[in-house]
Amino acid sequence: MSEKHALVKAFEKFSEKHEFKPGDLVTWKPGMKNRTVPKLGEPAVVVEVLAEPILSEHPNDRAHFPGSPYYREPRDIKLGVIDDRNDDFTVFHFDSRRFELYVD
Exposure string (b/e) for 64-81, b if CB count within 10 Å is 16 or more? Predict the structure, then answer.
């Protein structure tokens, strides 16, 4: 597969829109994982879909720097995962474009 073709396919996958709702199980789209959690292939539960995405404004947040891949990434969904270190339920903000419905 040519590099251009791979880029176009990745862009198309990234651009696929999913309408999530609280309680849905989701997982990373192929090739879209840019965080350590949830683990690849493992589900996360949708806790909340935000009406307005959050963009980093805090100077200590690594997403604040223009050279960061997280710079101005719209975090529009809150996902819950079980922390494998202590089995606690933890909620994180993500860019929903990187996720699809989880199929067991």
Answer: eeeeeeeeebebbbbbbb
**Model-wide pTM > 0.70:** yes
Q: Using CA atoms, how far apart are residues 75 and 91, in angstroms rounded to an integer?
A: 13
Domain count, the chain: 1
Q: Which domain holds residue 36?
A: 3-101
CATH number of the domain residue 36 falls in:
2.30.30
* pLDDT tens per residue, range 21-71: 999 999 999 999 999 999 999 999 999 999 999 986 665 665 566 667 677
Radius of gyration of the chain (CA): 14
